[in-house]
Amino acid sequence: MSNRLPDSWIVKIFNTMQAHYGTRWMNMWKLGEILPNGLDAGMANAMDTWAIKLAPYEHKPDALKKVLANLPPEPPSLPQFMELLKNCYVPTVLALGDELTQEQKEKNKARIQEILKNVCKRA
After folding, report:
1. Distance between CA 69 and CA 85 in Å, rounded?
2. Is residue 34 part of a domain?
3. Is residue 122 part of a domain?
4. What does the DSSP 8-state code read for residue 40?
């Protein structure tokens, strides 16, 4: 694991937040001091801090995507964003290694029918 999220990820997060919250997001971080690279010093500091703090999510891009797709009404602080990530459930999809044969499919269907019969009897 690296010690920070890739800069491109942080830019994407901040761009998404700015698009979602507008100036409310930008005003949370800006200082009004423009650096030689054109970024506001406060925004650059916030982006750097977020990149470091969100490093554990480098291998969980689906969690980041899910949170960004379901943002709360008010712009989150870094601790609030991390809480959203912590509470984000992204199911793991199991992949079958081999395709089932027709015989296996038929056996599975028969087994499912038997289970359903038993469930319906109990209901």
Report:
1. 12
2. yes
3. no
4. B
